[in-house]
Structures are given as C-alpha cells and as structure tokens.
Amino acid sequence: MHLPGFKPEPNVAEATEPEVEVRIRGLMMDPQTRMPIVVLNDLSGDVVLPIWVGLLEANAIALEIEKATMPRPMTHDLLRNAIAGLNGRVTRVVVAALRDDTFFATVWMEQGGEAVALDARPSDAIALALRSDCPIYVSQQVLEHARAAAGVTPNPSSDDLKRWLEELGDDDMGRYKM
Known about the structure:
This protein has one domain: Bifunctional nuclease domain. The chain has a 7-stranded mixed beta sheet. It is of the alpha+beta class. The protein contains 5 helices and 7 strands; from the N terminus they run E-E-E-H-H-E-E-E-H-E-H-H. It is about 30% helix and about 30% strand.
C-alpha cells in the first residue's frame, strides 16, 4: 500500500530480491572530497558499503549514534513522532537501488496492519531507522553492483579508497567530527 496521492519511485515495491542486513560501522570524512561517508557492514563484517551523504544528514546520524539529546526535535525526530502519532511504525529501511552513482532507499512502515513504502534518500532512511530502532538492509543487487563498480574503476584514487575502507579497523572509526 502507498499513501493516497503519493507516487513512489519505481524502486519502491514489495521486496522481491534478497536483502542483507547491515549495521553502521561508522561515520567518517572522505579524505579526498571532505564529504561525510556512512560506512555500512553486513552483520558478518565481510561486506563494506560506503555511502556519501550530506553534512546535515551526517550530523543527524551522528547525533543519534552518540545518543545526544537536543532541546527541540530535529527533522528526523519530527518524522518519527509524526509516524507514531498516526499510529504507524517504521519496520525496516532498505537501500534498494543504485542508479547513476546515486543510492535510493525505501522506508517500510506499518499502519493499521498494512505495509506502507516511502521512497527516501539513504541518509534520511538511516537517520530514521536509528531513531525508530529498526533494522537496515541493503538489496543484494546493490551490494553486487557496488562491488562490481569498485572492482572495475580505473581511477587509482577509487581503488585506494576502496582498499582503505576495507582495511579500516574498529579504532579507525572514531567519533564523527563536524
């Protein structure tokens, strides 16, 4: 089910392909572009998926990772509260597609016993998942596409970044600094 009047992106559909549950391994800055990266790991720790996000979204994710309290609700807190106020709950988020180097996500909710899917940016979906205490998934297709893209990129800096991300230890994933 979709919200009345809501026209979802084509990637918003019932899950038909395998999904891999992931966790946030950390937030960091890309050493070359100085843009924030959310680093996702599958639960076994074998797959690393970096997703570049905006500064504001990274800050929203960092605040929730650090369990920082703000005097007033931030945007993702407001969204969580609105969903709860409408007797809904976020059940999971899925990084569902990768097109033209852009990730697409779906926020899955339940309201009145019906599934509701909303198209979202992965950064917003992740920030909402953290606040809703629900699992984060990545479609198997996205993981395979990301692996293939990283493996065939002729740009040495991309290979260096991939190698660098894969070799990161837990101590390297310090607190995110704005």
